Amino acid sequence: MARTITYREAINEALAQEMARDPRVVVMGEDNAGGEGSPGEMDAWGGVLGVTKGLYHQFPGRVLDTPISESAFVGAAVGAATSGLRPVAELMFIDFMGVCFDQIFNQAAKFRYMFGGKAVTPVVVRTMYGAGLRAAAQHSQCLYPIFTHIPGLKVVLPATPYDAKGLLISAIRDDDPVIFCEHKALYDLAGEVPEESYTVPFGEADVVREGGDVTVVAMGRMVHVASEAAQTLASSGIGCEVIDLRTTSPLDEDTVLESVEKTGRLVVVDEATPRCNIATDISALAAQKAFGSLRAPIEMVTAPHTPVPFADALEDLYIPDAQRVVNAVKSVTGWQR
Amino acid sequence: MSGSEGSAIQTVTMPKWGLSMKSGKVVAWLVEEGEEITPGMDLADIETEKIAGTLESAQEGVLRRIIARTGTDVPVSGVIAVVAPAGVPEADIDAVVAKAQQDLAAGLVEEQAGPTQASVQAGGRTICYATLGEGDQVIVLVHGYGGDKNSWLFLIEPLAAGPGGEGGRRVYALDLPGHGESSKDVGDGSLDVLAGAVLDALDALGIDAAHLVGHSLGGAVVSTIALRAPSRVRSLTLVAPVGFGTDIDADYLRGFADAGSRRELRPLLARLFADEEQVTRQLIDDVLKYKRLDGVDAALHALVATVLIDGWAGSQQAIDIAGRLAGTDLPVAVVWGSADRIVPVPGTTVGRWLVHLVEGSGHMVHMESPHAVRDVIEEVVGPPAGS
Questions:
Q1: Cβ–Cβ below 8 Å for A204 and B260
Q2: Is the Cβ–Cβ distance between A169 and A21 less than 8 Å?
């Protein structure tokens, strides 16, 4: 039966159900057990924002606290994946990927290819991204475009509790390395989630809202920003078709292109900085494959090309909001040659 | 449906069609203020997130006042109109209307007793069901391939209310194994497994015998129960049943089992209805969410192989119930939508039973023309004892 739980609880439930189903699934990362097993276990944290809370007792020996060395434990997870386990490693903040990038992009992403398909690397790297928590420039970035750039990796950005659970179960069952990006401002978002296990397929975008005037493509937290803008625009008679990409690799080109062919206008909303991000990628796709359908220039709503500011007022300005999406939509619907 | 004791003023409220329905929109009133209404008369077209339907009157009297104007959203159980005999003074009506409007504005709408959802452990499986009503007469509704208990959303309440609105009935709508929120294991996918699961559920619910209503594959399931355990069955109502002809849209069965996206599902689900507008985004989303559950894929593939004569690749029905059921002593009624594209109407009769044909409805005749299906069920079931 479906009940209402949070994005955080949905991720926890996906981990618990897959660990119960498959003994090869293990969870590892900084503070994942979070003091469980030591005196004062009631305080056990379960990862920096409590996502893995409670798993340690349910699955003794399968929730591993690691040293603060991403290169070591992400490397260990990749190695364990090649030798029979299905590890879910938690790279606390996506900002820290720099220190374990060799393990991810030059090892995990290459094994299937370099061993002629004979090796699989079923590892999931869960990681937090995004601004909005006053966490400053080194803990607030949206670096998913960098992973999306690399062949051999799958990149997942759930926007809702329902998708978070179903996409994480898909990620754990997938035989390729998956970078699972959780927006830290979404953890308390509540939504209906079935109790049973289910999978949401990769490469299948969700048309969150249908509309005939403008296609608005978004991912992760920006889906909610785009939906809010679409709601506002509906009252002034502009119909937005809001598409949640769900995964940026693989990418559901068909859903985006079919929509652009219908509406003739495209706005892409991406919280990442503007150079070589998902917005530029989707814009290029539409310009190349739906050029004949476009009736106005494509608009991109993104963060500015700066580090995420620490000052509250500046951080609030930095994150794309619904008003900026409304403005972008109005500029494409009002465009005259 | 209610009014204070002694008062002749009755209120018409927003119905609850399905477990998740929270509000509905009056799309059109089919009667005017001042018009005489009788039970069973079509009052208004109402649209919910999932589906559009027609609200039938449970009241008798004059439609004195319409409260919910066309286009307004009203929460379930909110008062949408007032019915009273012509003799009731305007001032009394005004008072009821004023109170109803105040309650609506203040959000003071009491949820009426719609169907409740529960589950039982039966034969090693969890079987989920929706139920409504009290009484010794029991009606059990069994959905078809890929469906679930919610497909009976327009029938649970009217059936529980009984022919005269006095109740005296218990209505259950089950989720078959592999469907809805029941366990997804269907074993070999045979009719015996499905029929056995329904019998196990009847045991677990303490139901000795019931009037069984089955749609599509569910029609074959309830027929199998009638053959296996006739003492448990009071009557059969077969709604566009599988097993009474050879034609079937095999591409639909396979397509539904394989579909993984909204894009693939929409044209398939459209074939279920005569009026394709019935396929809302919400309906497609609900089906997609169901199809993603662990075990559903295997269940649907197993069931397709049961229904088709050459298994997965077949093009005709493998199940022949009509012949086996020919000798039954049980009352049987058969109802079909004339525009059924999934299991086409086999003829004016099947075996020795007349087919009640519902013009202009598709395979989901119980969703498109619930009143017609209800009439057929009421006729074969008969009024509850003591009413």
A1: yes
A2: no
> For residue B308, which of B260, B356, B251, B264 has the smallest C-alpha distance?
B251
Q: Per the domain annotation, does B369 fall within a domain?
A: yes
Distance from the B279 Cα atom to the nearest Cα atom in chain A, whole angstroms? 14
How many other C-beta atoms are found inside a 10 Å radius of the C-beta of residue B13? 23
Instruction: Show the domain range for B33.
Output: 10-106
Q: What pLDDT, in 10s, does the model give residues A89-117? A: 999 999 999 999 999 999 999 999 999 99
Instruction: Out of B262, B292, B294, name the one closest to residue A207 (CB).
Output: B262
Min Cα distance B169 → chain A (Å) is 26
| Tens digit of each residue's pLDDT (9 = 90 or more) over A218-244 | 999 999 999 999 999 999 999 999 999
Give the residue on A whose Cα is nearest the Cα of B289: A198
Same domain, B102 and B121: no
A159-181: per-residue pLDDT in tens? 999 999 999 999 999 999 999 99
Chain A residues within 8 A (CB-CB) of chain B? 1, 162, 166, 194, 196-201, 204, 207, 210, 254-255, 258
ipTM: 0.90
Q: Which CATH architecture has domain A206-333?
A: 3-Layer(aba) Sandwich (3.40)
Distance from CA of B294 to the nearest CA of A (A): 5
Q: How many domains does chain B have?
A: 2
Residue B331's closest CA among B239, B219, B240, B238?
Answer: B238
The alpha carbon of residue B332 is apart from the nearest alpha carbon of chain A, in Å, by 34
Interface test with A, best of B125, B284, B289 (most A CBs within 10 A): B289
Query: Where are the domain boundaries for CATH 3.40.50.920 in chain A?
Result: 206-333
Task: Please provide the CATH number assigned to the domain covering A2-194.
Answer: 3.40.50.970
Interchain CB distance below 8 Å, A1 and B181: yes
Intervals of CATH 3.40.50.970 along chain A = 2-194
Angle subtended at Cα A33 by Cα A28 and Cα A36, rounded to the nearest 5 degrees: 155
From chain B, the residues in CB contact with A162 under 8 A are 289
Q: Which amino acid, residue B188?
A: D
Contact A130, A176 (CB under 8 A): no
- Looking up residue B84, the CATH number of its domain turns out to be 2.40.50.100
Identify the pLDDT of residue A43: 53
Percentage of residues of chain B with pLDDT beyond 90: 63
Which pLDDT does position B113 carry in this prediction? 65
B115 band by pLDDT with thresholds 50, 70 and 90: confident
Q: CA of A43: how far to CAs of A11, A47, A53, A54, in Å? A: 20, 12, 10, 11
Phi, psi of B332 (to 5 degrees): -130, 135
Contact A177, A156 (CB under 8 A): no
Number of other CB atoms surrounding residue A284 within 10 Å: 11
And the tokens for A332? 């494409």
Inter-residue contact B83 to B62 (CB < 8 Å): yes
| A204, closest residue in chain B (CA to CA) | B261
Closest by alpha carbon to B227, among B304, B312, B319? B319
Backbone angles phi, psi at A113, to 5 degrees: -70, -50
Interchain CB distance below 8 Å, B260 and A210: no
Catalytic residue numbers of A read 139
Tell whether B171 is covered by a domain: yes
pLDDT at site A33: 81
